[in-house]
Amino acid sequence: MASFVESGWQVLSLSFSLFLHHNLIYLILLPIPSFSGDFLRLDDLSSLYCDTCVFFFFSNPPVWIHRIQFGFVSLQYCFRSEFDYATSYVGILTVFPVSVCLLELKWYLVTHFSDFQLACIGSFLLHESVFFLSGLPFIFLERQGFLSKYKIQTKNNTPAAQGKCITRLLLYHFSVNLPLMLASYPVFRAMGMRSSFPLPSWKEVSAQILFYFIIEDFVFYWGHRILHSKWLYKNVHSVHHEYATPFGLTSEYAHPAEILFLGFATIVGPALTGPHLITLWLWMVLRVLETVEAHCGYHFPWSLSNFLPLYGGADFHDYHHRLLYTKSGNYSSTFVYMDWIFGTDKGYRRLKTLKENGDMKQT
């Protein structure tokens, strides 16, 4: 019974999503003039956003739902003359057997866009969705006082300070992050990035993601440590440290120069390996979730740092924010071993020992 209810819910979810995709969103955007040229039309933009969300956020339904999903996909393209990849329900079933992996089906939903549109615009839309959906709840927690016993610092940010953060983030994301993604595309293409079938194996994806985390943490550590030199801190990095009590969204609140400088740490791994786009997207999602968690200001019983010895987490990075820039340490983004090796976490470890021994109350 539970399986039947779950299957029914998944069918309804898929139906509703595709209804929005081809009715509500297109009705809203239809009166708006499209961009000229082949860059990206506004109706394509809505399609790309919905297809990306369908790919990432739908759970795996039973095999029999595949036929229903194939039907929707087929109809989707039958009534859109600009795409002729699928022309009939029979055709779509010929291309994709019923037993096809649902991951491949979901990926097929987005592959009617060009590599440029997917890698740049699709990546930007995915980043914005994951970032704000994971970061905004911490503003709600802070304002309402929910789960306050897990809050690392007792001080709260004012609504005005939170609003300032969101406004600046939107400005920087569109004026810095998006152009950076556009500029990075030729590099990724030159290194072999692709979005075509076949999809990479999970072993390949896992190995690449692990490599990205390790190299990002290494590059970030040294870049972050340089930013704490006197001149760079005063003129660049101090913007990020305006929030001594961080919350999720402050993870990307920074000077434009810092966004470019430390953004290199995030893209250097993929640039070296030329991954499949699905690997790049997964890396982006995990990296965003990690940095939001590190800045969330809460240390929960289920926080990863309680289970992974080398993972820093919120408590590790919160210490960095609440101390003077010359004494903070804890420069790594994800792991703790770089700070341990170079002795930049001594103050944090000493404070943690005092707290564990009951000699000091949490600030």
Automatic annotation (TrEMBL):
Domain Fatty acid hydroxylase positions: 210-344
Primary subcellular site in the record, as a coarse category: membrane
Taxonomic superkingdom: Eukaryota
A biological-process GO annotation: lipid biosynthetic process
InterPro entries referenced in this protein's UniProt entry, alphabetically: Fatty_acid_hydroxylase, Sterol_Desaturase_Related
GO terms for cellular component: membrane
Listed GO MF terms: iron ion binding; oxidoreductase activity
Keyword annotations: Membrane, Transmembrane, Transmembrane helix
UniProt KW Membrane keyword: yes
Residues annotated as transmembrane: 12-32, 89-110, 116-141, 169-187, 207-224, 259-284
Compartments it resides in: Membrane
Protein family according to the UniProt entry: Belongs to the sterol desaturase family.
Descriptive protein name: (thale cress) hypothetical protein
